[in-house]
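>> Question from a student workshop board

For tomorrow's exercise we were told to take the sequence and the ligand below, predict the bound structure, and bring the output to class. My setup keeps failing. Could a helper post the expected result so I can at least see what it should look like? The ligand is magnesium ion.
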Amino acid sequence: MRDVRMQGFAKRTDVEDVERLLERLVQPLPPEPVPLLGCSGRVLSEDVVAAVDVPGFARSAMDGYAVRGEDTFGASAYNRLSFELCGEALPGRPFSGKLAPGQAIRIMTGAPVPDGADAVVMAEFCEERDERVFVSEAVGPQRNVGAVGEDIRRGDVVLRAGRRVRPQDAGLLASIGCAEVRCVRRPRVRLVITGDELLPAGSLPYGCRIVDSNSVMLRALVARDGGELLPFELLRDEPELIRAALECKDGDVILLSGGSSVGQEDHAPRLVAELGSLDVHGVSMRPSSPAGFGRIGERFVFLLPGNPVSCLCAYEFFAGPSIRALGGRSRKWPHARVRVPLARKIASAIGRTDYVRVVIEGGRAAPIATSGASILSSTVRASGAVIVPRELEGMPEGAEVDVLLYDDELAVGGVS
Ligand code: AMP
Ligand code: MG
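>> Workshop helper replied:
Here is what the output should look like for this input. Compare the format with yours to find the bug.
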């Protein structure tokens, strides 16, 4: 491969072409069994069919007295009917006998309704005295009784393949007796952070040294997208170190931050090409134009520029959707959106995709002025981002734009 260092990019790939390539190459990982307690948030790889009815027995929906419904016909406050009290049923502790006409048992919510009974009268309409119950309300058969299978029927598909398990889904899986489910395996993601100038996160910057902020941000993004993080490496810009990190077979995805461009110390693109294939190097976008993508063995390698905003942007456009897709999730942007007019115009260029940080004020989106790729605080001040597609030269003031919100709450609470 031609050494492009210090020569600039000959040509850049369109964002859509990179997206199409990734859609073709990156497919969901194979399934694995996941224990019930770990399945919330995971993506099911197959339908789940209930093997049992829930409930599996007719159960009382009220605290009261179980009776034969027809025996209560005619009962009212002025005509209380008397029943023989012959026992009780509690949740998990059934009444073992069978009710005969004119008999009742005391029953609590969740307890099985005994044979011979088909209705429950609420305690409020009953009075118990001397082994008898006086009932002042008529109840038809099945009243206050939960039928077998009223929640879930045996044979029902309760959750479909592709479903991302919600907390209540996990609860439902427990209720039908599942101990484990098959889910798409989570992608294992390795962060390789390069730069001679970098100090580990948690250090105080000094002199010409800066703190590695990209790994901190990337870890949170990978977690958001369902990836499993492997121990990460902070490396000097030395080709042999970077080569060793790329050769290591751990993980499905490598996120390589820094050294992705055409500078003297930018070794990563050449090394990826040498060890596997460098499918993309240089993308027609702003920020993040020095982004790249390649494959080494089974591993997908995303070259993320070191500038923090570029790093965020390249992750969101290419790495994030791929990590989600590997884990069986949607490639779509995970952000909530709002549609608002632009407070000021956005300048762009035909042929280039822009990721513009905006702040929403007074119901309008204003592009942030100091917005270079190295200005991480621009993303902190911003409410979200607007994407200016390749075919537009820019967007005029007043144009309605979709803002990808950095906080979901902004969509719920409204933006002002
Ligand atoms: P590079 O992509 O290596 O050319 O780096 C571009 C700019 O991003 C330089 O100013 C680097 O100091 C900075 N940079 C590189 N890596 C990181 C990192 N992990 N965290 C914060 N800034 C970085
Ligand atoms: Mg560097």
